[in-house]
Amino acid sequence: MSDTLRLLVIEDEAADFLLMQRELRRQEPEASLTWVSRQDHLCAALDAGGWDVILSDYSVPGMDFLQTLKLITSRRPMVPVILVSGTIGEEEAVELLKQGAWDFVLKSRLSRLSTVIRRSLREAREHQARIAAEEALSQREALLNAFFSASPVGMVVLDTDFRHLRINDALARIIGAPTESHLGRTVGEVVPVLAPELLAMLESIVLTGQPILNVEMSGELPSASGMLRHWLISHFPILDGAGGVAAIGGVVTEISERKRVEETLKKSEQRAQALLAENRRLTQRTFKLLEQERRHLARELHDELGQWLAAIQAEAESLRLGRSTGQDAQALASAQAISESAAEVNRVIRRLVGELRPALLDSLGLADSLRDMVSQWQKHRPGVRCELFLEDGLEGMGESLNITAYRIVQEGLTNVAKHAQASRVRISLRRVTDEQGAALILFLENDGKPLSPGDAHRGMGLLGMRERAAAVGGEFDLSSPPGGGVRIEARLPIANRPQEDE
Ligand SMILES: Nc1ncnc2c1ncn2[C@@H]1O[C@H](COP(=O)(O)OP(=O)(O)OP(=O)(O)O)[C@@H](O)[C@H]1O
Ligand SMILES: [Mg+2]
After folding, report:
1. Helix and strand element counts for the chain (H, E)
2. What is each CA distance from 150 to 163, 181, 417, in whole angstroms?
């Protein structure tokens, strides 16, 4: 509002208007007056707007005052209308005030005009501020209502006797009863099955003023009995101005579906774990049978074939020694050849027996068997430096672990010979005890060619090493270090009780 007071005057008598103008010039030098005496001019002036106060005579020919009042309040409800009349009784004036006039001044007392105008302006400003505050409040309330009803999670406000003051549609749907039917009812009446647990929480919130958040609750509701459901529930205090608990707010999310999925996942995980364990057991058994079979074969080769070969060799020898008894030279040469072939077959059988069943593993244990293997390997490959590091304490780890470690090193060395073109191999075995328990840690690394993509699935050797490690519940890792070559690491858990006899 500018400093100039813009006044619209409805008056049919020019003399009265001039009187008013003179009076106001004295009292309100900043006021600007506009005079209308006809309805159409009034309408135009109202349309133009910008009036601070309207001063109106009561009886203007062609204009009924009450009609004029209505017209003004409908178009400019915030502009105060002051009746300025020569002849109006007190009762009539009170009636007009009821109809919407803000105040009145008698023409005989125009000296009051400024006071009345200023008071009306003050009231108009207060009125305007009140209306704006009410509007803001109702907008906030509408927003809150919309928030409550649009919320996909359940919401509730309880009084301190735990009666429902307010509940949204989402929670009513979860509970399975119409929204309005909850109002005024207690928690115990609405969800009797959950009441003991809920009431304990609510009482604690009233007592401590602290929220209780994300509590998982399960139960059946009267609307769907026989169906176990799950919810995630948070409750919090709503404080009054003095910091006391005035009410309790609650947020409820239905998590039955999530729980079902979790439950199914847990079961299938348990099934997968059981299958994995079964698979390990079977693999371990397969390797055990394989080793048994190898041992049997080795024994047969050694005992049966060995005996027959010895017999053949003896026969050939006796033929050869019978030279003095006059046999021909051809027969003697054949006897010599048979004897040499038999000796060769004997050597092959010994090697096969050694590979099929490392005899030392049974009698001397893992460490000496590995030393023997490495020294045999080294003998045939003098150009490669093979180092074996064995820490103390490799005894008593059980047959499964011994044979697993032995076969991994055996295949590792075979691979180095076949594929690596290495100049150096390092093998180390040590026993550790850490947070995962006791285990044998095996490293086998060589310089030379790195692995190529897809190598791990090219043959049976690497696969067999991995399976052997897994069968004893261990881990196996194969990599190509940045410097080249191949590195194998296996962690083989040492069972408390060796599992040989299972
Ligand atoms: N130490 C190594 N250095 C370089 N390449 C290697 C090494 N070990 C394995 N490889 C590569 O990985 C592949 C797979 O090895 P794996 O032992 O599984 O099979 P293989 O030795 O080819 O045949 P087999 O089934 O007789 O063992 C090999 O063919 C080779 O290309
Ligand atoms: Mg191999």
Report:
1. 15, 15
2. 23, 19, 73
Q: What is the pLDDT of residues 402-442, one digit of tens each?
A: 999 999 999 999 999 999 999 999 999 999 999 999 999 99
- The CATH architecture annotation of domain 363-493 reads 2-Layer Sandwich (3.30)
Q: Which ligand 1 atom minimizes the distance to the CA of 448?
A: 3
Q: Is the pTM of this model over 0.70?
A: no
Q: Which of the four CATH numbers 3.40.50.720, 3.40.190.10, 3.30.450.20, 1.20.1250.20 does domain 151-254 have?
A: 3.30.450.20
Q: What's the fold here for domain 5-141? A: Rossmann fold (3.40.50)
Q: Where are the domains of the chain?
A: 5-141, 151-254, 275-357, 363-493
Mind listing the pLDDT tens digit for each residue in 123-162? 999 999 999 999 999 999 999 999 999 999 999 999 999 9
What's the half-sphere exposure (Cβ side, CA atoms, 13 Å) at 281?
Answer: 7
Q: Which residue minimizes the CA distance to atom 8 of ligand 1?
A: 415
Q: Distance between CA atoms of 29 and 110, rounded to whole angstroms?
A: 15
- Nearest to residue 461, comparing CAs of 478, 474, 446? 478
pLDDT of 326: 58
409, 416, 446, 458, best to mutate for ligand 1 pocket (most atoms within 8 Å of CB)? 458
pLDDT tens, position by position, 445-476: 999 999 998 888 888 889 889 989 998 889 99
Ligand 1 pocket (Cβ < 6 Å) reads 415-416, 418-420, 446, 448-449, 451, 455, 458-463, 486
